C-alpha cells in the first residue's frame, strides 16, 4: 500500500467515490514523488523536431468524409475560468452574437453531421464543478445526443498534497480546496474507468478527436481526419509555429535516448534551460492541444499497463488557496494529455495554421474573438477576416475579470480588423463603433471614455 500519507490519500479518494483506476493512477505518481521524481526534461536530453504541414498534404475529400464518420469528438470542459473571475463552466461564456463557446461547438458539430452524413458524437469531459451547468445548457439541443452514448463523462479528482510531507491537505474552511484535477492527461484514465473506450469501439468508432472547449478553431475537420486515418498512426497532435507570445509555453522535441517524440511543458523545464525553452528558432513548434488517437491502440496500451498509461509527471507547486499565497504550499500531481505522444511508437505531428488554434485564456484573447477579426460562417466555423491577428494587452487592473471587462465594452468590442496591436493602460471605456487601426497605445490617468465612432490611429 505504501506510506501512511499514500494510505490516507487513497482512503480519502475512495470515500469521495473516485474510480479505482484513478486511485491506482494517482498512487503511481505519488510513489514517483516519494522517490524524488521531478518530471524535468533537461535541454541536453532532447533535439528539435520538424514535421509535415497540413497545407502540403493531399487528402481525398471522400476519404476525409469517411474518416469523419468513424470519429468521435471529445471536448475538455472542466475549467471554470477562475483566472477571469468566473465561477461556472468557462464554455458558457458569451463570445459571439449571443452565443457561448458551447453553443458554437454544438452548432459546428451539427453542421458537419449534416454535410458529411456522419454520426460524429460530441462528448464533454466535465469536472464535478462544470457538469450541472453544462448539461443544463445542452438541453436546448434535442438532436445532439447519439443513441447509446453519453453527452458527458467526468474527469477525476485527487487530493492536494502538502509539500512538506506529501500528506493530503485538510482545509475545513473550504473543503473543495482540498481537491484538484489531475491535469487533462486524466482523460485516458477517465475514459477507461467509465467504460467509454469500450463503448465507442463497440459502436464502430475508430478514432477520437480531442480539443479544448475554449478553442473554437478546433473543428473536427474532415481534411485532418482523413490525414490521420491515412497515416495509420496510433496517435497524433496538431502543432503550430511558436510566436513571441508562446515563449513561455511548452514545445515539441525528440528524445535523444530512444528517438520518441515528446511534449515538454514549462513546468518540466529546469530553470537553467528556460532560455532554451524560449528559443523560437531552436524549438519552433508548440501544441494546439488538438489531438487524435486510435481507439484500439489506446485500449491495448491501457490494458497492457493495467490502466496506467504512465505519462510523464508534472509536479505543480501551488498554495492550498491559489488566490492566497499565505496558505500552505501544496503539490498538485498532474499529467498532460499531449504527453501520450511518447507512449506510442509511430506517433505523428502535423503543422496546422493558426486558424485551428484560437484559445481564450485571458480577456485579451476574448476581445479579439468578440471583435470583427473573425467572421462566423453558416457552418459556425471561425473565418479570420484580418490579415493578421492583432496583439492585445489590456491593463489587468481593470480588464482581467470578465465582469470588469464587460463594463468597459458595454456596446461591444471595437473594430480590430485593421489593427496590428492595441495596448491599454488604465481605465478606459469604449463606446459603440470605435475603430482601431495599426498600432495603438492608450494610457489613461483616470477613468476615460472613447466616444462612439472614434477612429484610433497613432500619428
Sum this structure up briefly.
The protein is α/β, with parallel strands linked by helices and 459 residues long.
Silhouette: globular
CATH topology of the largest domain: Spore Coat Polysaccharide Biosynthesis Protein SpsA, Chain A
Q: Which CATH top level class of the largest domain fits?
A: Alpha Beta
Note the gap between the termini.
70 Å
How much strand? 25-35%
Number of helices: 13
Q: How many domains, in number, for the residues?
A: 2
| Average pLDDT for all residues | 94
Would you kindly provide a written description of the structure presented here, covering whatever features stand out?
The protein has 459 residues and is of the alpha/beta class. The protein has 2 domains: 4-356, Spore Coat Polysaccharide Biosynthesis Protein SpsA, Chain A, CATH 3.90.550; 363-457, UDP N-Acetylglucosamine Acyltransferase, domain 1, CATH 2.160.10.10. Helix content is 26%, strand content 25%. It has 13 helices and 25 strands. A hairpin with a 2-residue loop joins strand 3 (94-96) and strand 4. The protein is globular. The chain starts with a helix and ends with a strand. 41% of the residues are buried. The model has no long low-confidence stretch (mean pLDDT 94).
